[in-house]
Amino acid sequence: MRVWSLTAAMTFATTIVLQLSGCGGGGAGSPASPSTGAQYAYVANSNSNNISAYSVNPATGALTQVAGSPFAAGTNPNFVAVNAAGTYAFVANYGSNNVSAYSINSATGALTQVTGSPFAAGTNPNSVIVNAAGTYAFVANSGDNNVSVYGINSATGALTQVAGSPFAAGSTPTSVVVNTAGTYAFVANYGNSNVSVYSINSTTGALTQVTGSPFAAATGPYSVAVNAAGTYLYVANPLSNNVSVYGINLATGALTQVAGSPFAAGNGPNFVVVNTGGTYAFVVNEGVDNISVYSVNPATGALTQVAGSPFAAGSTPTSFVVNTAGTYAFVANDGNSNVSVYSINSTTGALTQVTGSPFAAGTGPRSVVSVSF
Predict the structure, then answer these.
(1) What is the pTM of this model?
(2) Is 322 part of a structural domain of the chain?
């Protein structure tokens, strides 16, 4: 978790993907493409400056690197997102202040940088997300305290900043997510412990903070996720060791913490994801190398840890994603440069590592995303 670690140091002297549904730092349910059965996973390797691409065995969850993997990225690629159609991948390069854009070969999973890539961003872009319609990309620039918004050329994947971009955020924005309807964007402001909420102009992509924004969070909010219905927002707070849950006013975008929030997590919860059905929330506890799994009360948004939670991960897990079918979960383990893969029990939410897991990645994997065709 780059910003958290760097910030801590400074105190002494930083599916078709569920991220698109707001289920992850990005991370809303995405419209399905015609199924070909092909599944792929992509991992941003921050310390080796590349992207690992894997084919996913739909029967076992096992990963096999695709031909040509890993693919070159910018400096310190910190986050990877894929559009709902599965045609393009976008990578926030924290160290080179830009965004790489790739076309995805649906037959092989291979990545090819699009013409003009990489595209300029703000300072230290920490996360990127694409709206469900695939028309806009949103980037949280943690070094500039703002959010860049780009129009996406559907034919080429090229990015063009929209008028007015970048838009002001709070201090050290680390994560951005958009609801499925594409009407609101939510940004975790790590530096001043709040969440900015914006309405999105569907015609221009411009952001306007809603009345009451920013809304107070626990100390050090790092990752945000929204359920597919757009009714609840989940915020992982690594400095508070908990998860905040807010009800979202669909008419105004305003946030109200639900009863019982924040809910206890492990040490250093740095990433939160909600499955497409909105029935389970998954929280990555970077400080204790495990994953907390919660059942979600659909009426209130409240969280209850499932039996067996937390589940062991690798060293310093940093990111989590669930495949479109909700059958497998993938975790990027920064500390030992690999990816854990779990089968998900649809009845209980319990995680079980698949045979062969973990699978080797590049150095310092910080983000993982999956796509199905």
Answers:
(1) 0.92
(2) no
